[in-house]
TrEMBL record, chain A:
Cofactor: Mg(2+)
Lineage: Eukaryota, Fungi, Dikarya, Ascomycota, Pezizomycotina
Protein name, UniProt field: Nudix hydrolase 14
Keywords: Hydrolase
Residues of the Nudix hydrolase domain: 108-271
GO MF terms held by the record: ADP-glucose pyrophosphohydrolase activity; ADP-ribose pyrophosphohydrolase activity
Keyword field contains Transferase: no
Gene3D superfamilies: Nucleoside Triphosphate Pyrophosphohydrolase
Lipid biosynthesis in keyword set: no
Domain of life, per lineage: Eukaryota
Automatic annotation (TrEMBL), chain B:
Keyword Cell membrane included in the entry's annotation: no
Keyword DNA damage: no
UniProt source species: Lophiostoma macrostomum CBS 122681
GO BP terms: nucleoside phosphate metabolic process; ribose phosphate metabolic process
Protein name per UniProt: Nudix hydrolase domain-containing protein
Annotated keywords: Hydrolase
Cofactor: Mg(2+)
Superkingdom of source: Eukaryota
């Protein structure tokens, strides 16, 4: 039911147990070609090595990676052929003192990027509207789940480029890279960074590697352009998703988006950074053409 | 009739009796049934659940009731246009879901005895989170609310161990429930413009938020609790790393000034979400005055 190979790209060879009947032949190279696995194992390695830093919690009895397992793989059909999309793996770490074992299953799927899109009608000073996507979400068992627009990061995606692609695909609005404000990077500025972690929000770090950099795109538009966006059905993308757009008043975002963690988190970041004056600072730079 | 299969090594009948799976399946069937309504946007070309495959499963604990199951479901439509004619392009939903059941996050605000609002701190935990590759991931405490309405789980145990605090039912303000009960948004011209089709009822989603609604069933409720600590205990905890190793985790408990919470938990979705709910409900006077 399983076979074991040695995972060599580590400080010492680690036994890697592979379940039978997986859709690809699992080799060390195949795993490292899967970006989500590569990023995860690299972060784990860096953060385990940091245990040697004087004063580290585990300095005198560090965790050591003892075993890896690959349980299942789900393939995506891409333009370059079938490639791993999701992977369920398990990591077992050991140390000498209690607790001696850390055994964790990980659902690897890589990151996504999400955008808080705020539209302001040119003829008003105080009105703000937010674009949400409405689509079926099987995890939440809903045919009309409301969220801020988001998309999965592929291997070759540059994050801002992916954010722009999502916005343009779903709204036909044109976005320039300079107009995107990285909310997570702003929030994490000046943070004392002891670990190698992605610059994004981790959605459920007990089980998922998923991280989401959150961007803000705040734009003044003619009222009739905003009107034209309502209820437009977008679909027929390669992933066969059917997405409808909804436009809501910003004041309602926390309630209408209340079932989606990234929507609420983006609201929290926007409000927090806005309160600290950081959003207006960035918007000003964009307006006068000085890009950070 | 849905075909259910399991990978070798997965106990199919155990999964089929497991709470999180049965709830997920029931909720999914309920959502798909809503398509029967003529006003549902997918009524003309509804999605149908065809197959379920249990690709991997891990169970532990009493009666193997704690666990995860990775499910691959085939959910697709016939590909009909609004006149009922086949287009030859069935719509397919991404059907990979990691099932792990529900959980809770608690924002515990702690005040030193004799202090005031400006002294308020929030209690945070730091622990290894292997999926993030992290050995010290900072979060608001997460866990379960048990049958006695008490905050339970390894974080709860650690907090009680380190602070003496036990969070019981009467301490908990259910922020998720309060938020959902808050008045419906006033009718707004912009929302009227959006009414191309009536959104399906989402009552089956419960008063919770989903962490990763595309690929994970995890729904979470946010709670708030307010506690006071004796001044010396407060000082001892404040900024100091504590934690006795328990079970398979080492959880550090620390206090962070409320004003800094945002920056300390900036990478954790549930913590930011709980903070967002707390700030909004507090501003609207929907939480108890302290």
């Amino acid at each position: 039911m399983t076979r074991t190979i040695q995972f060599e790209s580590w400080t010492h060879p680690v036994p890697l147990t592979i379940s039978d009947n997986l859709p690809i032949e699992v080799t060390e190279k195949a795993l490292l070609d899967f970006t989500a696995f590569k990023n995860w194992i690299s972060a784990l390695r860096t953060n385990l090595e940091r245990q040697a830093t004087p004063g580290h919690t585990f300095e005198f009895d560090p965790w050591v990676l003892a075993e890896l397992k690959v349980h299942s793989i789900h393939m995506f059909q891409t333009k370059d052929g079938p490639r791993p999309g999701f992977m369920t793996v398990e990591a077992i770490l050991h140390r000498n003192e209690e607790p001696k074992v850390l055994d964790r299953v990980v659902f690897l799927r890589g990151g996504s990027v999400a955008v808080l899109m705020i539209l302001r009608p040119k003829d008003s000073r105080n009105e703000r509207y937010v674009i949400l996507t409405d689509q079926p979400r099987i995890g939440a068992c809903s045919t009309n789940f409301l969220e801020i627009p988001a998309g999965m990061l592929d291997d070759s995606d540059e994050i801002k480029g992916k954010a722009i692609q999502e916005i343009e695909e779903e709204t036909n609005l044109t976005v320039r890279k300079e107009e995107l404000i990285d909310l997570t990077a702003l929030a994490l500025e000046g943070e004392r960074q002891d670990e190698d972690l992605q610059n994004g929000i981790y959605m459920s770090p007990a089980n998922l590697d998923e991280f989401i950099p959150l961007f803000l795109w705040e734009k003044d538009l003619d009222r009739k352009e905003i009107e034209a966006l309502k209820g437009r059905l977008t679909g027929e993308r390669t992933s066969d998703e059917t997405i409808t757009l909804r436009i809501i008043a910003y004041e309602e975002l926390w309630k209408i988006g209340a079932r989606d963690a990234k929507t609420l988190a983006s609201w929290a970041l926007y409000e927090g950074l806005n309160g600290a004056g950081k959003i207006e600072e960035k918007l000003h730079e964009i307006r006068i053409g000085r890009f950070g | 009739m849905v075909t259910v299969t399991a990978a070798s090594g997965v106990d199919k009948s155990h999964v089929q009796k497991w709470g999180p799976y049965t709830r997920w399946l029931a909720n999914l069937n309920a959502a798909l049934k809503l398509q029967d309504d003529k006003s549902h946007k997918f009524h003309d070309d509804p999605y149908v659940l065809e197959t379920i495959d249990f690709k991997a499963a891990t169970f532990w604990g009493d009666n193997n009731q704690s666990g995860f199951v990775y499910v691959a479901a085939t959910i697709k439509s016939k590909g009909l246009d609004k006149d009922g004619k086949p287009t030859g392009k069935p719509k397919v939903l991404p059907g990979s879901v990691f099932l792990r059941g529900d959980s809770v996050v608690i924002m515990i605000v702690v005040r030193p005895q004799g202090g005031s609002e400006k002294d308020d701190h929030v209690l945070m935990t730091a622990q290894p989170r292997v999926p993030a590759g992290s050995l010290a991931f900072a979060e608001f405490p997460a866990g379960m609310v048990d049958g006695k309405s008490t905050f339970a789980g390894t974080a709860a145990d650690e907090i009680k161990q380190e602070t003496g605090l036990e969070i019981i039912g009467s301490d908990l303000e259910k922020m998720s429930e309060i938020a959902f009960r808050a008045k419906k948004p006033a009718a707004h011209a912009w929302q009227a413009l959006n009414a191309t089709s009536t959104p399906a009822s989402d009552e089956n989603l419960g008063n919770a938020f989903y962490l990763s609604p595309g690929g994970c069933d995890e729904s979470m409720q946010a709670f708030y609790a307010f506690k006071t600590l004796p001044k010396d205990k407060f000082a001892q905890l404040n900024g100091k790393e504590t934690g006795v190793a328990r079970e398979n985790e080492r959880i550090t408990v620390k206090l962070v000034p409320l004003a800094d919470a945002f920056f300390e938990c900036g990478r954790d979705a549930k913590s930011l979400t709980a903070l967002a709910l707390y700030q909004n409900l507090k501003a609207k006077g929907l939480l108890k005055k302290r």
